[in-house]
Design goal:
Blueprint: H1 7-35, E1 51-53, E2 65-68, H2 70-84, E3 108-116, E4 119-127, H3 130-133, E5 139-143, E6 146-157, H4 160-168, E7 177-185, E8 197-204, E9 207-214, E10 242-243
Parallel strand pairs: 1-2
Antiparallel strand pairs: 2-10, 3-4, 4-7, 5-6, 5-8, 6-7, 8-9
Length: 261
């Protein structure tokens, strides 16, 4: 049939086919958004956010309240349990607080710590910022003034339902992968180190970036009082998002000191 068409008809048919190929995908996306009951009305004015997901590294506006989505925290707790407990001893006490343990600039969170009376032996953390989770050789870690080496690294896919939940909480484009790091003392013959914070410098195309996590009592051995003892009870932890405590993630993060070589 196409062979019997004249040149003008064939050109029109090809043009219409290309036009449909270009228009159908955005039309499908628009209809899908309209069918989402949680989506904002397209004609509504932009809303200035007063809350953000606790690990949204793109949102750096001072004073914003950080919220820990329940599915995300449950996934982090499950990940820490699988990656951490199966490879170690009794002194490990993974932190599975519902409010999460983010760094000051929200690029990573600490998922587990192994500590003794001598200090910190191992740290398990999740790097959410893609520039930190690409390659461990781009990152340098320190506990206090003590260099830490990467003993294990892996990239892990974020489940679609967790990404969708983060988007509902205002994280516009959450990563598809996170980096799982396990750290230990870098100095030979040193089993544990002391410090009150974990600092990181990671190299990016725009230059070095840094972030810091204030340990509080999380670098103490398991016998120390747990942070959970004073945590308020919730009627339904599986469905209720929890505001993140600002004690470990202040709204205005001070500039972290550069890690010395």
């Amino acid at each position: 049939m196409i062979a019997s068409m004249n040149r003008e008809t064939r050109a029109n048919l090809i043009f219409i086919s290309l036009l449909l190929a270009v228009m159908i995908p955005p039309a499908y996306i628009t209809i899908k958004k309209k069918l989402d009951p949680d989506a904002r009305r397209m004609g509504a004015p932009d809303v200035v956010p007063h809350q953000a997901a606790y690990i949204d590294y793109n949102m750096q506006r001072p004073g914003i309240e950080r919220i820990a989505p329940p599915k995300t925290c449950a996934w982090v707790a499950e990940l820490a349990d699988k990656r951490w407990r199966g490879a170690s001893g009794d002194s490990i006490h993974p932190e599975q607080r519902r409010e999460g343990l983010p760094s000051e600039k929200h690029t990573f969170e600490v998922a587990a710590v192994e500590a003794t009376g001598e200090g910190v032996k191992r740290i398990g953390l999740i790097a959410w910022d893609p520039e930190m989770s690409i390659n461990p050789t781009y990152c340098k870690f320190m506990v206090g003034e003590n260099p830490m080496k990467v003993t294990s690294f892996d990239q892990i896919g974020i489940p679609p339902d967790v990404r969708h939940e983060l988007q509902k909480f205002g994280f516009v484009n959450p990563p598809k992968l996170v980096g799982w790091y396990e750290l230990g003392p870098e100095a030979a013959g040193v089993a544990a180190v002391r410090g009150d914070s974990l600092r990181v410098v990671f190299i990016t195309p725009r230059g070095p970036r840094n972030d810091r996590w204030l340990a509080g009592n999380h670098f103490a051995p398991p016998e120390s009082p747990s942070i959970k003892e004073g945590a308020p009870a919730s009627a339904d932890p599986a469905t209720s998002p929890t505001p993140v405590s600002t004690s470990s993630a202040p709204a205005t993060a001070p500039t972290s000191p550069e890690i010395r070589e």
